Amino acid sequence: MSIIKFLSAYAVPAMFLVILCTGLYKNVKIYDIFIEGAKEGITTVVRIMPVLVGLLVAVGVFRASGALDLLIYATKPLASLVGIPAEAMPLVLMRPISGSASLAIVSDILKVHGPDSFVGRVVSTMMGSTETIFYTLSVYFGSVGIKNIRYTLIAALIADTISIVVSVWICALVFGR
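^ that's the sequence the OP posted. Answer follows.
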């Protein structure tokens, strides 16, 4: 068995055992702390549920209204200027909003073009190097009650844009067009 397989097989049980042993050593009531954390988790879920429902409804309306298709059509000239394949534009526009919609888009692209095509490699790289910005901000900032996300949103959108361009550049460099 290789060292990586060994570590991956025993990492979680070892961490669990270390946590239990540390708790016993320090006389911590492990089960009570676990139950308290679970209660806090449920409270957080209830607190962020309206934000998530609103976001999911907005994504559904955005896709069903045809606004996504219109936005893709409008951004194709800029995308071709930067070298982003036209087939990847739905992912570029949907990824900051919804992870599940992005996954569905990638799945469709891979079915049509294949995972070893340039477009398949680009969208796979984009999925791994970009973030669902609006979802993440709504969940994390919503859970602690932060309403002013202006600077975080700007920084995240800049990072996402750079990740998209670099994904295309790296794939072109490593795999060619």
